[in-house]
Design brief:
The N and C termini lie far apart (124 Å). It is elongated and about 145 Å long. By secondary structure, the protein is of the alpha+beta class. The protein contains twelve helices and 13 strands. The strands form two sheets. It has a seven-stranded antiparallel sheet. α2 packs parallel to α4 and α10 packs parallel to α11.
Amino acid sequence: MSENEEESHGETSEPVSGGSFSSNNFSGVSQLGCDMFDAFALERRRWYGKWDWWVPPTTPPAKHVCGPASPTPESAAAALRDVDVAEASVSQRRRTANRKWTWKVPSAIRPSKRVRSRSKPTPESATAVLQNVDILEEIFLNLPPHEVVHQCRLVCVLWKEAADRNSLWKERCRREGYRLCEAYKTPEDWRLFYFLSKNRRNFIRNPRGEERLNHWKILQNGGDGWRVTDVPAPHPDKRVRKTFVTSFYIGQKLQMIDLKEEGYNPFFMDHFQPDIRISDWIITRWDCGSQYHIHVDLLNENMESIQVFSPPAVYLGAGGHQHWNQMTHIFQNYGPGVRYIRFIHGGKDTRFWKGFFGVHITQTCVEICPAMHKPVGTGLGRTDKDEMRKATSRACTIS
């Protein structure tokens, strides 16, 4: 109890001159303060329940509530101050009890204007990043290759330098699985090697006879003509099941390849002059020898020959054991102007037996492949198991 309340106990209720205060007035003020305090306590208990460690303030003397003595203005003000003290005490206890349940965001991750301003890139920082060739190379590795060449390369000199780096295209070849057949033969231009490897395919249609004689133009149909049969012996490529076979007189067939229709424009062929590789797989019967012919021309737009591959006839003798032979040739440094490739092959048997006892031909291939440092010649050889490209010479080498 405050000192004002203690003094009010000893005072008598006397009328105050010059005012209208009376004992009834002071009793109403005291009763109003108690009613306010009780309402506040009930409301707080209703909201906080068992979590509210509320301690009621000191109960005022009975005479303040219902005693005969009327309170003074000082005692009413003291009662109101007690209500304020009780409210502050309850609020402090509630904060103390709930402090362990409060999760505070660490200052290191709190959003602030300073952090946001630092994380926002500035034109200077973006320019510094885009002027780093190593960073540009990593960005280009994640873009489509045609966009790098046709768009990014034209932005500025620095981007052109990054787009032309051999390390960029060498890494692309590694990621996409384009590997060198021989490790010691490295390409001079890795960008050209990448695009040629990506677009590498066989230009010959129906190379194995799976569509009978479709896409082939028959030039000579000697003897009993051409025929498609099963392979006389297992081929190194297990997918090959059919062959073209000739008869007792010469037979020849042709295919014409338009390089522009295949996606190789004149500028590319004249400027880069990629290697053009041709190959044929041949075999003869075990009881009858055969003869094989091949003639390939590189033609300009007027159908005039620029370079020709026409070796002498190859004779395959009969023997007790049959094996496949691969004829290969690569055109290099043929000069500008190549627009078409004319491919002709054929043969016959050597004993003039009626029927189809001539040379068997399959897996014909004409393709554009990346150029290597070491020139590659022409050869006819027997394959070593399933390694189709590593042929060892058996009978002859044609150059």
